[in-house]
Design goal:
Number of helices: 7
Low-confidence stretches: 22-103, 403-409
Shape: globular
Radius of gyration: 36 Å
Oligomer: single chain
Helix content: 10-25%
Order of helices and strands: HHHEEEEEEEEHEEEHEEEEEHEEHEEEEE
Structural class: alpha+beta
Distance between the termini: 111 Å
Number of domains: 2
Number of strands: 23
Strand content: 25-35%
Strand order of the largest sheet: 2-3-4-5-18-17-19-15-16
């Protein structure tokens, strides 16, 4: 083979090899790309991680959305402390059957920005509601099934008999110059009792909450006018403190009329001796004292004037504290408003809330560590402090409870 033939053959062989190399390289490149991202499966492999949120992400998004849509409390509604919630007793009385609402009857947003939501009526004339972080019980006092009762703790009288107190002082046989009546005591002090324990002694009670102020050292019981089922307990046995005509009081008549005011001393038979006054048995059938009046004629009172008039001072007037208070609307509905210590309010804020809810009159009761609310078998607001007086509300179960289920305990 000549040199020219050799060169020609070598050139031809090189060209063939080059062409084969190009074809092989293209095939390898095509095979590698297709294995990493096959055309028929690329979307399915990438999409789930890119567009479908995980369960944690969805829960976080829901929580953020809920937080953004919930009304934000005003400055006066913010908690004043981060104290651990008060404990409840392990032996809290419960009913044998509890009705658990499955629907809400109504919902309304007030001017304060808080939404009031009310459960459907389970017991005649009584509805449980929430106004933002505050507890509300709306009661029709004129409903024939509804009644109120003043309740005191259990103790011994001067004769050693044990039962519910029939006096607001310890007997003078125990402490000189105290009550000349039966008196009431446990140990060397006036007794106290938590609201759930009071409720346990009264079958048929639907609502229970604390009432009048009392001695912080339990040296005496309720301070203001006290009437239980037509029988006056304060003052009738020469307990001459005069608080029955000095402080405001709350009365429930036999017929369901509600009175929130200060007793007019000069309307009494002997104005100079109010302790001799026997209240009208029907109009003052169950009465508790308080301090001060919060609302009159649909407007907040002037607290400087009102507190001076009633006692010369007001309990924690400017402090954001737990509160128990009762109001009366122009339509005759009773509003029980309970505020926890965590969401404590001033007296002014409390009065403003009642005006917003339509109250024409309202009264402040004992608050702070005494504030307690029991409703339909459970403690909505608990405190370990024994109190010297409570108000219980009774009613009967509605028959049309189709929207609720009965849960046996």
């Amino acid at each position: 083979m000549t040199w020219n033939e050799y060169d020609r053959n070598r050139i031809i062989i090189g060209m063939v090899v080059s062409v084969l190399s190009l074809v092989a390289g293209f095939g390898i490149t095509k095979l590698s790309y297709g294995a990493a991202l096959p055309e028929t499966g690329r979307g399915r492999l990438i999409a789930p991680a890119a567009i479908q949120p995980t369960a944690t992400a969805a829960a976080t998004a829901t929580a953020v959305e809920t937080q953004q849509s919930s009304p934000t409390p005003q400055a006066t509604d913010k908690p004043t402390s981060t104290a651990t919630p008060l404990p409840t007793l392990t032996a809290t009385p419960t009913q044998s059957a509890t009705l658990v609402p499955t629907t809400q009857e109504s919902s309304f947003v007030w001017g304060s920005g808080f939404e009031e939501t009310c459960e459907a009526e389970i017991y005649n004339g009584i509805r449980h509601c929430k106004l933002g972080p505050y507890y509300i019980v709306r009661i029709d006092p004129k409903h024939p099934d509804v009644r109120f009762e003043t309740v005191l703790p259990l103790g011994f009288d001067r004769e050693g008999n044990y039962g519910e107190c029939r006096d607001v002082n310890v007997p003078n046989t125990l402490v000189p110059y105290r009550s000349t009546g039966p008196g009431c005591y446990v140990g060397n002090a006036y007794p106290g009792e938590r609201i759930p324990h009071m409720v346990a002694r009264y079958p048929g009670a639907v609502v229970g909450f604390n009432a009048d102020f009392f001695s912080p050292t339990y040296s005496y019981g309720p301070i203001g006018l006290t009437v239980k089922n037509g029988v006056r307990l304060d003052g009738i046995n020469n307990d001459r403190d005069g608080k029955e005509v000095q402080r405001s009081s709350l009365s429930f008549s036999k017929s369901g009329d509600v009175r929130i005011s200060i007793v007019d001393r000069y309307s009494l038979p002997i104005p100079e001796e109010p302790w001799t006054w026997i209240p009208d048995r029907d109009l003052y059938y169950n009465t508790v004292g308080g301090l001060p009046i919060l609302v009159m004629d649909g407007k907040p009172v002037n607290f400087h004037e009102q507190c001076t008039l009633e006692e010369g001072w007001c309990p924690a007037r400017f402090d954001q504290r737990a509160r128990t208070a009762v109001g009366l609307t122009g339509e005759g509905e009773v509003i029980v408003l309970i505020v926890s210590e965590y969401w404590g309010v001033t007296l002014q804020k409390l009065a403003d809330l009642f005006v917003e809810l339509g109250a024409q009159r309202a009264i402040n009761l004992d608050g702070g560590g005494s504030t307690q609310l029991w409703y339909m078998g459970r403690e909505l607001l608990s405190s370990p402090r024994p109190v010297a007086e409570g108000i219980l509300v009774f009613s009967t179960l509605k028959f049309n409870v189709d929207a609720h289920s009965v849960v046996e305990q």
